[in-house]
Amino acid sequence: GRGKWCAAMAAFGWGDWEPTVHEPPAEDATVSALADASVQFVNPMNDDSKRKIHRLSWDSERAYLAVALEDPTARLLRLHPSSGLKRYGQLKGHEAPIEALAWHPTDQVVVTAGKDHRLFVFDLRSGRRVAVVAVPGRTINIAVDPSGTYYAIGNRADEVSIIDSRRGAVVSTTQFPSEVNQLAWRPDGRLLPAFGEPQDCRR
Asked: pTM for the full model?
């Protein structure tokens, strides 16, 4: 259940994960998403910061929000019914800003990719970063297939690659004539439409 998962997340304390060890008061570390595509963290202990959001992604239960800003660390926020989003933890390891992230469709797994040409897979239940995959180009979007077996990534070199999570490796790469802006698996996982320029759509 959700309670067991929350307890397991504390295992990320050694480098990859920085959990909140107590429930913060309502005025501490509140988060607001702004209309200009930025996020504002408000914390009495630190200077306020305002940074551009690269990616947002909810977990399957819509209880946790993963946020990629303009740095190598992904933030996890927890949604509280009475007080909104609160900072919950961080996913670390990239050596350059994260530009894409996605949750597993049914499991507590977060996939991140950054300008360092690496893709990380974090298993939040076990408290481990379970995979690091070298990927071609700078990844700008990620789509996880419905079974969680394959990750599709698009990069700035106008390529779409498929990663097999069981092997932890890229198994295919397709060149497109333009940058692929959207990837979406069909619910049965047998089709991956990829959209670039208006005249360029492949399956």
From this structure: 0.72
